[in-house]
Every structure is written in C-alpha cells, then in structure tokens.
Design goal:
The complex is a heterodimer of chains A (372) and B (292). Chain A has 372 residues and is of the alpha+beta class. Chain A contains ten helices and 20 strands. The model of chain A has no long low-confidence stretch (mean pLDDT 90). Chain B is mainly alpha-helical and 292 residues long. Chain B is 71% helix and 3% strand. Chain B has eleven helices and two strands. The chains are: A alpha+beta (372), B mainly alpha (292).
Chain lengths: 372, 292
C-alpha cells in the first residue's frame, strides 16, 4: 500500500490551466474523492497520478518517493475509466489477465488470480464473453477486476458509476466501498456527484476551475464550508443563499435582506465586525430551518408557493420579496400553497460569506491564528 | 385541419410508387446491359472456335486455353505460370509495402502531435489527386538511376507509393475511432507505447488493414501503365503485359486467345474480391462499434 502526496501540481494545455497548484495528501489505505463540476481538473489530476499526463509544474510522491518521471507501467496503479476502456477484441478473461500477462507471470498464477478477482466481484460466469456482450454494470465490474488483478498499491477511479442506472449505482457504490475496505487499498475517486463522494470517501477534495477549494471529511465540508462555492456545491437540496447587509438598529444587530430581517446572536456579531465589511451572503441549509404558525424570536414570515414531495419529506419553497427559500420539512407537517408561515432559522447553523466568497467563520479562524 | 388522404389518394400513391420502382429497375438494367454483355461475350468467346461476323460464337472448344502450356506468342519463351507468379509477386509486394508503411504512419498522424503533421496530411491528399501518368517520365529517370528498370521491385515501389496516401487516410479514420481511454488503459496496465500499438491498437484496426490490403492487392494485380512502361524483359512480365502483347503483336488479334487469357487474368481477383468484400464494405461503415 502507499500514501500519495501532491505538491503544487499544475497542468497546462496550451494556455488553459487545467489544474492549478494542487497540494494534497492521501494517507496509506485512505479513500478520498476529488469532487467538482465537469472541467474542474479532477480527471486531469487523476491522469497525472497515473502517469499518463506529465505535470507542467509540481511534484507527485508515492510513499515519499517522487514519481514524476516514472512511466505509467511502473507506477503500479489500477485505473478504472468512466468509459471502462475494455479491450473489445479480448474476452473478459483476457481483459483481466492482460496486466498479469504483461508482467510475465506464470500461467497458473494468472489463472488463479483472474478467477479470484472475478469471484470477488461476482463475474465468474462472464469470463468467456466479450465486452460487447456485457451490460454497463458488468463491464464496470470487469474494468474494476482488471484494475485490481495486479494488486496495485493505488486504485484510481474515474467516474466509475456515472454510466450506471440509478439503482445499480447505489449497489455498486456500497460494493466498491466494501472492496476498498477489504483490500485496504489507497483509493482516489473522481466524481461530479456529491452523494457519491460523500458516501464513499473518508475525505473529499472539492475542486473548482483547477483549484482546490476545500479538503476534509464529508461532515466538515457540509457543516463548515470554507467558501461560497463549497457551500453551494455540497448539499442536496442545495443551501439557500441570500445577499444581506449587516446593521445595528436600536442597539440590536441584524441582517437585512430583501424580504426579511434576521436578528444576529452575539457570537456572530464579533466575527462580522472583525471582517470590516457590511454586506455578506447568508447561507442556510433547507434542513436547518423550522416552521412556525406564530412569530418567534428571530423568525420571519413568508408565503408558500411550491411544494416538492420527496418521499421521506417535503421541500417547501417560500417567497420573501424577490427571494425564494427552500425548507425541508418532515412529511407529517401539513402545509399548502398560499399559506403564510413563520420561518425560524437555526442561528447556530447559519453560514455567512464575505464579498470574496470566504466563509466568515473561516476568516475568523485565520484571524485568530494571526493574533496568536 | 382536413385529412390529407382518402382511400383513393392512397391507391394512387401506391401505383405511383410501383411505377417509380419499375422505372428505376429498367434504367439500371439498361445501364448495366453493355457491361453484362461485354463479360458474357468474354466468357462465350473464350470457349468458341470462331466468331461469326466478329461476335456470333460458333462451336465449343477448349483450344483457346492452350496458352496455359504454350505461350503462343512468337519469340516469347516464358510460360504463363511464370507470369502468373510475377503478377502475384507484384500484387503481394504492393500490399505488404502499403500496409507496412501506412499503418504506422496513420497511427502517428492520428495520435501524435508533431511539427508538420497537418502539412503531411494535406500533402498526402494532393499526392493522391495526382494523375499517375504525369509522373511517368520522372519516375522513369528515378528508377533508371536506382537501377530498378525492368525490375518488378521498381513497379512495386511506385505503385505502393501512389497507394499509401489513400491507405493512410483510411487507416487514420480507423485509429481515430479508437478511444484514447483504451490506449491509456493499456499503458496503466503495464504496456509500453510500442506494445500497446502491437497488442491493442493493431487488432482493433484489423478491419482497416484488411480493407487497404484488399485495395492494394487488386491495385497491384491490375497494374498496367507502370508495368508496360518500366518492364520490357519478358522474364518480368505480368499477365497484364501478356494480354497487352496479344492485343499488340498480331496483325489480326486472336479474340479467342484474348478472351481466354483475360478470363484467366480476372478469375483470381474475382475470387479474392468475393472472399474479402466484407472488408471493403467496412471502410464506409467505419471502425469499431459497441466494444468498449
């Protein structure tokens, strides 16, 4: 097994900067996800780790050894492509055996290992077929087998689930996680699907425009997004965002938006004061809001204009002036379009971002560090 | 909106379609008739004693086929089977050269970025558009300088050279159709670039190789202009030279012999075509399907 370290990794294609100064560490046996919208540089990063692309700048270490100049065939990584990239002219057996045959292993060993790994992913009965005769899910398993059969130290998965249908995706998600735990193999998953990243990975690296936005355990990304991009990208249904201005009226600090006024608790006041700014972006997750029939402290009133039943709960859309606001309620709560209700955000769980997109909480952490 | 059709209008439509179909078949029949008659005449003539008025066959005979053991041309002491082998040598030589040159070249053009890549692509097209006959004189000098006149190898090189641009274009299309992922995957699986080309890419473009090989073989087998210009020694004659000699050397051409020899010349390539035409069809269909 191996640990991976990326240091200031940059990749340019002509004038386009695909990956920009990426620094990241993956512990031995850890499962991490590179998450971001398409074109954010995550696949490029993966291909640099595999050795297909040469970094324009920066270094890649496997177990503290720099591998920048090591050819892909000598890196001992397993790679599963989004397209699976099976060899169409070979049978499933030959596909899986290919890496071992290249390594010139004895025939009996190849046979034993192919069957072993096929059993692990339950495709033993498909070994004689050709890729063209398999379903997407089966092809995906074969690709996984081919990546695992040489017992690589690092497993790289490039959107391995995105060509599967919804149900199969959920099954395979658990399956891959189980395999990774069993084999204890250091794994990097590239995905644009936050649910995939959050459910499978120990840590998630969110990327945007080639730049790492935040790297941490899924809960941390969810509870304490470092910036506006992470806040809006993570979470389904997405976070409510509203431009607000901070002001003090009758010695009571409040956030004023187009359509509502939110009183601010003392804890936040300090942080906000410290930024020296007056306007912020307020973020509230749909589940961090309660509904009330009468006015309460820190509540504001809005009108229901759309309901989306999600099965387990209902997503209620409110209108405040020009703003719309999504609130997730349990399905026992009976509301109807046109109802006027009081919305009570959980003050502990609100997020505020300064004009440069950074989280106010994050900035105060940086500021505290600086004072020490 | 009123309905656009009635039972009457539909019947009329049907009749119109039938008439159109009949018309098309009639047209195609008339257009192909001269060709069909030509070949029919060839077959009939090859087995007839004489042709009344020059085209009505009279009497069945196998006598026209004695060229198979007797050259039947004055001053020619090379037997027909030697010429047959020469033709085969020429055709296979062209085929092997075209495949060996254009496959790696097409791979490089399809997959690699290097200075002059687009220039090469454009120039191959221009080269392909050149009428070969305009090169005759220049090629004569070159072959003379290389000592390849009166040598089948010279014809092979010239023919292959003129086929390569076309073959490169066909093969480039086949390579373009293979996703990069497959090649990258082989590299990660532990193959070198060369090995990937050999083990993964080549098997996947086999239909393309088949297609250009068939084209090159037929081109080599039917090679005429360079053969009769550059090769005069009967030891290096091909069947094509022989037929040309039949037409040219008799004051009154022996049509029976001409027909029989032509059939003999055509038969292998006809058989070859029947067995390989599926490759040719693939060229238009394109490379891989499904697969990955």
């Amino acid at each position: 097994m191996a640990s991976i370290k990326l240091e200031g990794l940059t990749k340019r294609f002509g004038k386009v900067v695909a990956v920009n100064g990426l620094t990241l560490e993956v512990k031995d046996g850890e499962f991490i996800a590179l998450l971001g919208p398409s074109g954010c540089g995550k696949t490029t990063t993966l291909l640099m780790i595999a050795g297909i692309y040469r970094p324009s700048e920066g270094k890649i270490y496997f177990d503290e050894v720099m591998v920048n100049d090591v050819a892909p065939k000598d890196r001992y990584v397993g790679l599963v492509f989004q397209s699976y990239a099976l060899y169409p002219h070979m049978t499933v057996y030959q596909n899986i055996a290919f890496p071992l045959r290249l390594a010139k292993r004895p025939k009996e060993e190849i046979d034993r290992k192919v069957r072993e790994v096929a059993k692990l992913t339950r495709i033993e009965e498909l070994l004689g077929r050709r890729p063209g005769q398999l379903s997407g899910g089966q092809q995906q398993r074969v690709a996984l087998c081919r990546a695992l059969v040489k017992e690589p130290e690092i497993l790289l998965l490039d959107e391995p689930l995105s060509n599967l249908d919804a149900r199969l995706r959920i099954e395979t998600r658990a399956e891959i996680k189980r395999l990774q735990r069993e084999l204890g193999i250091t794994t990097i998953l590239v995905t644009h699907d936050q649910v995939e990243a959050m459910t499978m990975a120990d840590r998630v690296a969110v990327m945007h425009d080639g730049v790492l936005q935040q790297y941490g355990p899924p809960e941390e990304l969810y509870d304490r997004p470092r910036n506006l991009f992470v806040a809006s990208f993570i979470g389904d249904p997405p976070m409510n965002l509203a431009p607000v201005s901070y002001r003090i009226e009758d010695e009571r600090p409040q956030l004023v938006a187009d359509g509502f006024v939110l009183p601010v608790i003392a804890e936040w006041c300090q942080r906000l004061e410290r930024t020296g700014e007056r306007t912020f972006t307020l973020g509230i997750r749909p589940e961090d809001v309660q509904l009330s029939l009468e006015e309460r402290d820190g509540s504001f009133q809005g009108e229901v204009f759309l309901m989306e039943p999600l099965g387990g709960g209902t997503l209620v859309h409110f209108k405040f002036g020009k703003l719309t606001f999504r609130v997730l309620v349990s399905r026992e709560v009976r509301v109807e379009v046109g109802d006027r209700l009081w919305v009570v955000p959980n003050q502990e769980k609100i997020h505020l971002f300064t004009s440069d997109g950074l989280s106010v909480r994050e900035r105060s952490v940086i500021a505290t560090k600086r004072f020490k | 909106m009123p309905r656009r059709f009635t039972p009457g209008s539909l019947a009329k439509e049907r009749r119109k379609r039938t008439a159109l179909k009949v018309g098309m078949y009639l047209f195609l029949f008339l257009v192909t008739l001269p060709l069909a008659i030509g070949y029919l005449w060839l077959v009939v003539g090859a087995f007839s004693k004489t042709l009344m008025y020059g085209f009505v066959p009279q009497g069945f005979t196998l006598q026209n086929w004695d060229f198979l053991w007797n050259p039947r041309l004055p001053g020619l002491d090379v037997d027909i089977w030697h010429m047959f082998l020469n033709t085969l040598y020429l055709a296979l030589g062209v085929t092997i050269t075209v495949v060996a040159v254009s496959t790696p070249m097409a791979y490089a053009i399809s997959r690699m970025h290097f200075p002059g890549r687009t220039a090469i692509l454009a120039s191959t097209l221009i080269l392909h558009a050149f009428p070969p006959i305009t090169l005759l004189l220049a090629l004569y000098y070159i072959l003379h300088a290389l000592g390849l006149l009166d040598n089948l190898l010279g014809v092979i090189l010239v023919r292959a050279g003129l086929w390569v641009p076309f073959a490169v274009w066909v093969m480039k299309g086949f390579f373009d159709d293979i996703p990069w992922d497959i090649e990258m995957s082989a590299l990660v699986d532990g193959a070198t670039r060369l090995r990937t080309f050999w083990k993964i890419m080549l098997p996947l473009v086999r239909p393309g190789i088949g297609a250009i090989a068939v084209f090159a073989f037929i081109g080599g087998w039917t090679e005429f202009i360079f053969q009769i210009t550059f090769v005069h020694n009967p030891k290096s004659w091909t069947l094509c030279s022989y037929i040309y000699a039949i037409i040219g050397s008799y004051r009154l051409t022996n049509y029976g012999l001409l027909a029989a020899a032509s059939l003999f010349y055509m038969a292998p390539v006809l058989l070859f075509f029947i067995f390989t035409q599926r490759f040719l069809v693939r060229v238009t269909v394109g490379g891989m399907k499904g697969g990955s």
